[in-house]
Amino acid sequence: MKLPDLVEMAAGNLRNSILRNGLTTVGISVGIASLVAMLSLGVGLQQLAGQRLSRSGLFDTVVVSAWNDSRQMARDSGPDGSGGPGGPLPPDGTPAVLNEQARRKIEQIPSVIEAQPEIRFVSEVKIGDKSFIASIAGLTLSAREDEAFDTLQGGFFSGPQAPEAVVKLDFAQDWNKGDPAAMIGKEMVLRYAERRGLAPETGDNAGFSTEAAAPDGEADASGEDGYGFSVVRREMALRVVGVVEQNPFGGMRASSRARIYLPAVLVESLNIMQASDLRSAVQGDASQKTYQSLMARVSNPAHVAEVESAIKQMGFRTFSILDAARSLQRFFVILDLFLGIFGSMALAVASLGIVNTLVMAVLERRREIGIMKALGASDRDIRRLFFAEAGAMGLFGGFVGVGLGWGISFAINFGTAYYLRQRDFPPETVTAVPWWLVGAAVGFAVMVSLAAGIYPASRAARLDPVEAIRYE
Fold this sequence. Notes:
Elements: H1 3-16, H2 18-55, E1 61-65, H3 70-76, H4 100-107, E2 112-117, E3 120-127, E4 130-139, E5 153-154, E6 164-168, H5 169-175, E7 187-197, E8 229-244, E9 260-263, H6 264-270, H7 277-280, E10 293-298, H8 304-313, E11 317-319, H9 322-364, H10 366-374, H11 379-422, H12 435-452, H13 454-461, H14 465-470
Parallel strand pairs: 4-9, 6-8
Antiparallel strand pairs: 1-10, 1-11, 2-10, 3-4, 3-7, 5-8, 6-9, 7-8
Helix pairs in contact: 1-11, 2-9, 2-11, 2-12, 9-12, 9-13, 11-12, 11-13
C-alpha cells in the first residue's frame, strides 16, 4: 500500500467516527497540556534561579589567594607535591607571591574578564558638620549588573576613577532618617591613611630601626633593601551619586559588607594603609604591591573549573562555589523528573482511551479489514493503517496540548506577577516553554499514541479474512 493511499484511508476512518476520535484526541491534549505545564514550571524555576545566581556574581567568580607558608602548601598539595586542592608545588617549594605581576598573568588566562583585589577598610567620612566612622569598599563597574542595584536610588559610578560614592540605605538613614535619598548629590570628605613606601636613599631610618646592629653575615635591614613605609594622612572629596538598599553579591564577598562603596580602581590608586601591610613589609620585595586575595571574574560559569586549574598551576589557592552550583543543577534535574512523571499520568490515562478507540474500530471494521486482506492487503499494511490512525490522533492532540499547556503557563506567570505586585515585589517569570519542550511534548504524544496502537494493530492484522468477511 502506497503512502498517499495509507494517509487518505486513515483520514477517512478518523472522519467517520469523528466524535469518538475527537474525544480521544482531547484526552491526549489534556495529558500533554498537564505535562507541558508542569515541565514549564520546572524549567522556569531553573532559569529564574540561574539568572539570580549568575547576577549575584557568585558562580562566575574565583577567589585567588596566596599560601601562608610552604608547610601548609605541601600538606594541602598532596604527599608527592603533584596536586590536590592547592595545585602542584613550585620546584623550590616556596609559595608564589600574589603581586601585580601575578595579577596580570591571571587576567591573561582565557575566559578571565578581570582580576580585582578585595579592598575594604574602616575610615572617617565627614558630611557637612557630621562625622562618621564607616567601612568602605571598592566595587568594579561590572558590579552594576548585580541584582542588589535593581532598586538603586540615584546612579552608579560614572567611571573607574570617578570621585563618587554609593552609600548603603542604613548609612543614609543615620545621616537623615526622614529622607535618606536627600544624601544624593551631597559632598563627603574621606579621611584615610595612605601608605607611602620609603626609598632606599632616605637613609638608615628608612626601614626598621637600626639601633641594634645586625648579626655578622646578615644584611642590614635598613632602607638599602627597600623595606619600610610611612603613613600619611590624606583627605579626598567625594560626591554621593546613589543609595543602595541591599548588600551586593548577596553579602558573600568581603567588599560587599560595607556602608560606602567607591570605584575599585580609585580605591587602588589611594594606596590605603591596610593591616596586612605590616606582614607584607617583611615578606618579599617591599617595592612590589601584594594582595591578600583577588576576585577573578569569569566570562561563563561553565569555564570556572578551567580557570581554577590554570590558577592552581601558577601556585595559588582558589575557591569557588562550583560544587554548590552542581548540587543545585542536580536538584532541578530531580525536580523536572518528578514533575514529568506526575504530568505524564494524565497522558497515560489518555493512552488507554486510544487503545479503547482502536479496539472498538477493529470490532466495527472487521468486514472492511477482511475485504482489504482479500484484495491483497498484507498484515503489514493493516498494522500501518492502524498505526497511522493512532499517530494522527497523537500528533493533533500533541499540538493542541502544547497550546493548552502554553496557556496554563501564561496564566501562572500572570497570576504570580499580579500576586507579587500586590505585595510590592517586582514581577517574576516562574514558567517557561522553550522550543525543545514543544518538540519533545509533540514527539512524546506521537510515541505514546503509537505504543497504544500496538495491540489494536496487531489484533487487526491477525484477523482471518474469511471469518472477517462473514462477520455481521
